Amino acid sequence: MVSVEIERRDEVSIIWMDNPPVNALGAALRAAILHAVEAAVQDEAVIGMVLASRHAIFSAGADIKEFNQTPVSPSLRELIDAMDASPKPIVAAINGVCFGGGLELALACDARIVTSTARLALPEVKLGLLPGAGGTQRLPRLMNPADALKLMATGAPATGDQAVTSGLADALAAAERLLAEATAKASLLAKRTVRQRLRDTAADQGTRDAFEKAAATLLKAHPGEPQIEALIEAVRGSYEVPFDEGMRQERRSFERLLVDDRSKSLRHAFFAERESGQLPGDIGSPDVIDVKTVGVIGGGTMGSGIAMAFAANGFPVTLIETDEPSAQRAYDRIASSLSNSVRRGSLSETARSENLARIKTAVDYAELSAADLVIEAAFEEMDVKRQIFGRLADVVKPSAILATNTSYLDVDAIAEAGGDAGRVIGMHFFSPANIMKLVEVVRGRKTSASTIATVVKVAQKLGKLPVVVGNCHGFVGNRILARRSEQLDRLLLEGATPEDVDRAFTAFGSKLGPCTMGDLAGLDISWRMRRATGRTAPVADALVEAGRLGQKTGRGYYRYAEDGRTPISDLEVTTLIEAVSKKQGVKRRTIDQEEIIDRLILPMINEGARIIEEGVAARPGDIDVIWIHGYGFPRWRGGPMFYAQTRGYPNVVARLKELATLTGDESLRPEPLLEHLATDGKSVAPQ
Ligand code: CAA
Known about the structure:
The protein is of the alpha/beta class. It folds into 3 domains: about 5-260, 2-enoyl-CoA Hydratase, Chain A, domain 1; about 295-475, NAD(P)-binding Rossmann-like Domain (Rossmann fold); about 595-680, N-(1-d-carboxylethyl)-l-norvaline Dehydrogenase, domain 2. Helices cover about 50% and strands about 10% of the residues. It contains 28 helices and 19 strands. The strands form 4 sheets. Strands 12-11-10-13-14-15-16-17 form an 8-stranded mixed β-sheet, with helices on both faces. A 6-stranded mixed β-sheet has the order 1-2-3-4-6-9, with helices on both faces. A 3-stranded mixed β-sheet has the order 5-7-8. Helix 9 packs antiparallel against helix 10 and helix 22 packs across helix 23. The longest helix has 22 residues, at about 595-615. The two termini are about 25 Å apart. Acetoacetyl-coenzyme A binds next to strand 5, helix 3 and helix 11.
């Protein structure tokens, strides 16, 4: 229930914002604040106001959900205008997060008192926007404009201490003194005859050169990003045009960006990430086991990464290897990876020692007798996994959860070997497991609700994004990837080069093209997977069979420079691919970028629709989260399923039919769900 409480302290009116959980500035809260400000202005006994929060955070800013709805008055701007026009001073008492519109409210106050744990940010660029309620005009009038620009362009929060140093905030206060200090400040400011407002100042012209330099650097780092270009223009306005004109310019840009697909996609990603952590409806709210200690089987790249992820979050880990030398190698690998983090400055020496102290290696499964959760990260072979689960069933306690880190094998078949299948689940981490946020939580046929809920909770404790998915070959991520890989191979066979494909992909917005990505991951991995399932990919198979496994052998779709990382076009690859095309009787032709992208992306959407129909993913947004966080799908495209929405379902369906006819590949025919969405009409326009 949204409310604003008004409390009187001496002659100061305290306006308490109370809109849990994050004081999002929705219509009701805006109206309540406006009402409180107007009442304080009218009340002769009140000399000033303090804006404060009843919650652990000051405000998360504008209510992002409202961005898709018809605007309701008072808008944030109207509220801020009223605050600006108040003859009585207003002080913001900032505890915790103060983001976006929340900070813009605070910028319209006469002073900002902060706790040292406060976090102040204008993160709108992360939603494809720029601050839309005066932030671009007030911030450069308050602090160095180049620093203001950087703050807005990164969207990264400043701590309370940093805010005071930069001039963004006026003073620090201990949490228990925050209100008293803010009230005292309001009383003090009330003694001034005229309020000093940022709108009556201008950005300091002496800082212009530094600002232009910062702007040039940003444009170079973010080519073609409309929100960065608009932000720079808006801040430049604080030097060049009066405040009100600057505000109009900011508004125009904000409104333009708000309806842009880029911002819609980024907003979709924001909510999809939060929704994906919610358990699918049929699971209910079962008891969650308190996981205190963890076991990991296998100390290779994945096992070590998983162990590090748990240790970094305070869990004691026992890592099991097959023999002492392998156990020592795993320990050394972890120690060296943590040392690299210290060298890069992302980990302190103390944290390194603490993390390492939490990891114990062993060779005897009996060491896992106390573990609450054991994650198997051994070879991707069913027999190996079943054998491990059989051994585990003999040693772990009955309440322990047994997870497999398989990336495509049948979790039910693994579960059969582990005794009670209710406690067996998939936890598909992505490499490097201590860095990548995504975890596919794979529920088997018999996995209990409590096991699912516990694993989701544990993954969240690691700071991961767990997404619950059903059990099928490759689950959600790799199952969709398989469709894309099939098309990649066909494109190469039909005439595209690895360079063509990668260029088209980076133009679409991905950091790496699929060929570069394949070389990085190792082409033998998918080759082995294909062999196990009786599938072929003529071009990729020929590369592997010629010893071209990717970066690890210095040759794959490309050859690699001496640094082992820089891809160089290789004539040998062209010859090899042409020979495969000839052998397969495929006539090569020129394939343009548009066809490359459509052939790679639209089948992913088709497979995503199948996955939704089968209930393997609970929501289309879950597929998007998996692809953004596990496979580098451009976040500003919203993920494959949202991309279908921005592109328009009828267009996707028509194009899939066209491609199926062009290539004779019947798997490209649109799924019934897509056909339905295309004719339903309602879902065509992006939300
Ligand atoms: N609008 C609407 N809902 C919001 C919200 C916002 N600005 N910020 C958070 N929420 C919701 C979340 O969706 C979530 O809802 P559910 O519980 O239903 O999933 C709930 O609040 C809690 O959020 P988190 O799970 O993210 O909680 P957290 O403690 O991990 O993080 C936070 C809190 C740091 C505030 C984080 O939510 C966040 O970064 N929010 C976005 C902040 C932002 O981008 N603000 C700018 C808005 S744009 C703006 O203000 C434009 C302008 O200039 C007018």
